[in-house]
Design brief:
Layout (H helix, E strand, L loop, with lengths): L10 E3 L15 E2 L6 E5 L8 E3 L6 E2 L4 E5 L2 E7 L4 E8 L5 E8 L21 H10 L7 E3 L13 E6 L9 H7 L1 H14 L3 E7 L12 E8 L6 H8 L8 E5 H13 L5 E7 L7 E6 L4 H5 L13 E5 L6 E2 L9 E6 L28 H4 L8 H10 L2 H7 L6 H10 L6 H16 L1
Parallel strand pairs: 1-13, 2-16, 11-12, 11-14, 12-13, 15-19
Antiparallel strand pairs: 3-9, 4-6, 5-8, 6-7, 8-9, 10-14, 15-16, 17-18, 17-19
Helix pairs in contact: 3-5, 8-9, 9-11, 10-11
Length: about 425
């Protein structure tokens, strides 16, 4: 008897915010950028306590394990480039701040990938898990709730592939997938073997890529506001996560990296990254490794006639949810250059909003813009109050388990207190994760 899967209906997300989009970057990828350094950042891995396998000054290969998680030493974290370990920086309580690798060619070929790499076996689930753990691709997954790298023995109830991004100026997934379609399809097969549940490939309604039909593979189309591109919205609509039934999320470029690993046996840290922002001469796509040095990628890109480098800020991520820093975040595929603005000035991307806070000390007044700032129909004002005072149980009742840091980033621009709700949410999620352990 043949099995026929009912097609999912497209989801139209009307609740949420719409932002003024900058000019779309050219779809021609600039391959000429030379990255002088790359880093693994602790902010990308909340709660990580690393056990280092390398020392400062040591030569490393691309894909070589740099450290493992002390609490789960099966999870390996790999170097995105070949070179020399330049610095290891610690945060509070010996947590990782940054491990920086400086690109440096080796005369003896030590930094080069081995020539005998060959396709890897996908014969069983346990074989696939062992490969992903040992080759440094396990951190491509984030588990919901709590938004952490999943434990090495965790089994997801479902996996969500995010192949849609409605941030201003983001990379268009379709051309990137089309150029690496074989690897992307292989990556989807790998994901299907990792779960007894379904793999949801979430894409724009206008997407031209057709998801391969199978019992476990589901294509889910979304359109509408900015929130339609968030993984939290997809999970809320299709398969809500609970502590007893976790789901995993993964970006479409990481799926390509998974497929490349199993097709060729080689670790692929390269990503297509969008450089966007009005201070740039033009928006463009570049190829760069995970954790790339942002200053190097932006060298020669700022329009000197309209902006001085000192009057601009470079964010890892979009202008909505990006963060300050010198290196590209692990899960970011965009660098946004914005003008430094005086206190109270509105950023460009908010021009379409009917109301916008000024970061003054005025009282926050509930309004339609604030009410629509969070995905999954979560009440923004009560959630902001719960996060501000660190009331984890109230935040949980309001839906905090449906969120990760990028979901509350828009509140930073709307709230008149000037608070950053991302670390506030992370503190609450960490407390709830401890209680659930």
């Amino acid at each position: 008897m043949s099995f026929e899967r009912k097609q999912l209906k497209p989801v139209s997300v009307r609740r949420g915010l719409r932002f003024s989009a900058p000019a779309a970057p050219s779809q021609t990828i600039d391959e000429s950028k030379t990255v002088k350094a790359a880093a693994l950042l602790g902010v990308d891995y909340p709660g990580l306590r690393p056990r280092f396998l390398v020392e400062v000054g040591e030569r490393v290969r691309e894909g070589q394990t740099l450290f493992v998680d002390r609490k789960d030493d099966a999870v390996c974290f790999a170097s995105p480039i070949a070179g020399e370990v330049f610095a290891i920086e610690f945060g509070p309580r010996r947590t990782l701040s940054a491990l920086v690798v400086r690109a440096k060619a080796s005369d003896d070929g030590h930094d080069q990938l081995p020539d005998d790499a060959e396709p890897l076996s996908t014969s069983s689930r346990e074989t696939i898990r062992a490969v992903l753990l040992s080759q440094g691709l396990w951190p491509a997954f984030r588990s919901r709730p709590f938004g952490l790298v999943p434990a090495s023995d965790e089994h997801p109830a479902a996996i969500f592939v995010t192949a849609i991004d409605l941030s201003p100026g983001a990379v268009d997934p379709d051309p990137v997938i089309a150029a690496r379609e074989k690897a992307f399809r292989q990556g989807l097969e790998v994901l299907g073997a990792l779960t007894d549940g379904e793999v949801f490939v979430c894409q724009a309604k206008s997407s031209t890529f057709r998801v391969p039909e199978s019992v476990t593979m589901r294509a889910a189309s979304f359109e509408g506001t900015y929130q339609a591109g968030l993984a939290s919205t997809h999970i809320h609509q299709l398969f809500p996560a609970t502590p007893d039934s976790p789901v995993w999320t993964i970006g479409f470029q990481d799926v390509i990296a998974l497929g490349t690993l199993f097709l060729t046996g080689r670790y692929d840290a390269s990503r297509v990254v969008a450089l966007t922002g009005s201070p740039l001469e033009r928006s463009k796509l570049v190829r760069a490794p995970l954790g790339a040095d942002i200053r190097g990628l932006l060298e020669g890109e700022i329009d000197q006639g309209t902006a001085e480098p000192s009057s601009t800020r470079a964010l890892s991520g979009s202008s909505v949810s990006g963060r300050d820093g010198g290196y590209l975040g692990r899960y970011h595929t965009q660098i946004s250059v914005v003008s430094r603005r005086s206190r109270g000035a509105r950023p460009d991307w908010t021009r379409r909003l009917p109301f916008f806070g000024t970061n003054s000390t005025a009282t926050l007044v509930p309004n339609t813009t604030v009410d629509r700032a969070l995905p999954a129909n979560i009440l923004a004002i009560p959630m902001m109050r719960a996060l501000s005072v660190g009331d984890a149980q109230a935040a949980k009742r309001l839906g905090a388990l449906d969120l990760v840091e990028e979901d509350v980033a828009a509140l930073n621009h709307i709230c008149t207190s000037g608070a950053d709700y991302r670390p506030l949410l992370r503190a609450v999620l960490d407390e709830l994760a401890e209680d659930a352990a």
